[in-house]
């Protein structure tokens, strides 16, 4: 199953960090947050990624090429213009880096990946948030729901828009950012059936979180997986400091893999 990662936004609230690099390249413990997100999926055996790039996309592409070379034993034959890779210490990842455009919105970025998705279910998340989510339990609930999309719902401190639920785990609406905390919000970590792409138009630049998700709500095709564990975005500089502090003190809840 492929994992799509939205990695094209500007990340303006991170200030100077994202003037120099795209938001998914902002580091936690010396590695981009994008790497951490991929390690979460890889822990559960999902190693086929499609990274939906945009802003400073060349930096993401260059990082992956350098990462492969830096974690391999190589022989460079300058005389014969050859490069031999002897032993690679990299993760077993297949990574497709797709330039989806500088100003493309999230829904249209996903649509641009249609030919890479094919007719198989896929996972989708944002390139700026980490969690200790159990991917296997998320997938199990998605399969049992029979719906086109399962969204991971989380409960932060009250700085985001919230979700409304029906009698079961069906999502029946959205509210803009309330003053009180304790509400459930979109935490990413989606599971999608391929037919969800029909909900994203070809001829408009759209946000995934707007018309497509609202249409899925109207069709009763949006399920919620309620995750009560750790989740945190890389949204502001204080978030970067918090996540780095957790990592540096060996208290990062999302790190389930061995070094």
Q: What would you note in describing this structure?
A:
The protein is α/β, with parallel strands linked by helices. The protein contains 8 helices and 16 strands. The strands form 5 sheets. Strands 1, 4, 7, 8, 10, 13, 14 and 15 form an 8-stranded mixed sheet that branches. Strand 2 and strand 3 (31-32) form a beta hairpin. The longest helix has 14 residues, at 57-70. The radius of gyration is 19 Å and the shape is globular.
| Assembly level | single chain
Shape: globular
Query: Averaged pLDDT, please?
Result: 91
How much of the sequence is in beta strands?
25-35%
Order of helices and strands: EHEEHEHEEEHHEEHEEEEEHEEH
Stretches where pLDDT is under 50 for at least 5 consecutive residues are none
- The rounded distance between the terminal residues' Cα atoms is 24 Å
Blueprint (SSEs and pairs):
Elements: E1 2-7, H1 17-20, E2 27-28, E3 31-32, H2 33-43, E4 48-53, H3 57-70, E5 72-77, E6 82-88, E7 94-99, H4 106-112, H5 114-117, E8 122-126, E9 129-131, H6 135-145, E10 149-154, E11 162-165, E12 171-175, E13 185-186, E14 190-192, H7 211-218, E15 222-226, E16 231-233, H8 237-248
Parallel strand pairs: 1-4, 1-8, 4-7, 10-15
Antiparallel strand pairs: 2-3, 5-6, 8-14, 9-16, 10-13, 10-14, 11-12
Throw out a few tags for this protein.
259 residues, 8 helices, 27% helix, globular
């Amino acid at each position: 199953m492929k994992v799509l990662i939205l990695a094209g936004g500007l990340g303006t609230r991170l200030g100077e960090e994202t003037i120099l690099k795209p938001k998914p390249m902002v580091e936690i413990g010396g590695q981009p947050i994008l790497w951490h997100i991929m390690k979460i999926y890889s822990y559960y055996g999902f190693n086929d990624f499609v990274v939906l790039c945009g802003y400073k996309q060349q930096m993401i592409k260059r990082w992956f090429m350098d990462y492969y070379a830096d974690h391999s034993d190589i022989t460079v034959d300058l005389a014969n213009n050859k490069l031999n890779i002897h032993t690679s210490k990299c993760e077993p990842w297949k990574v497709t880096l797709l330039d989806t455009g500088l100003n493309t919105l999230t829904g249209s970025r996903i649509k641009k990946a249609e030919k890479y998705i094919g007719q198989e279910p896929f996972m989708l998340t944002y390139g700026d948030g980490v969690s200790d989510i159990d991917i296997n339990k998320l997938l199990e609930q998605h399969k049992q729901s029979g719906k086109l999309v399962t969204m991971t719902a989380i409960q932060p401190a009250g700085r985001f828009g919230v979700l409304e639920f029906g009698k079961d785990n069906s999502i029946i609406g959205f509210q803009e950012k309330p003053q009180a905390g304790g509400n459930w919000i979109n935490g990413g970590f989606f599971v999608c059936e391929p037919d969800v792409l029909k909900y994203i138009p070809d001829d408009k630049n759209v946000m995934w979180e707007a018309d497509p998700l609202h249409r899925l709500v109207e069709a009763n095709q949006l399920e919620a997986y309620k995750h009560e564990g750790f989740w945190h975005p890389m949204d502001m500089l204080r978030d970067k400091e918090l996540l780095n502090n957790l990592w540096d003190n060996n208290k990062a809840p999302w790190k389930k893999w061995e070094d």
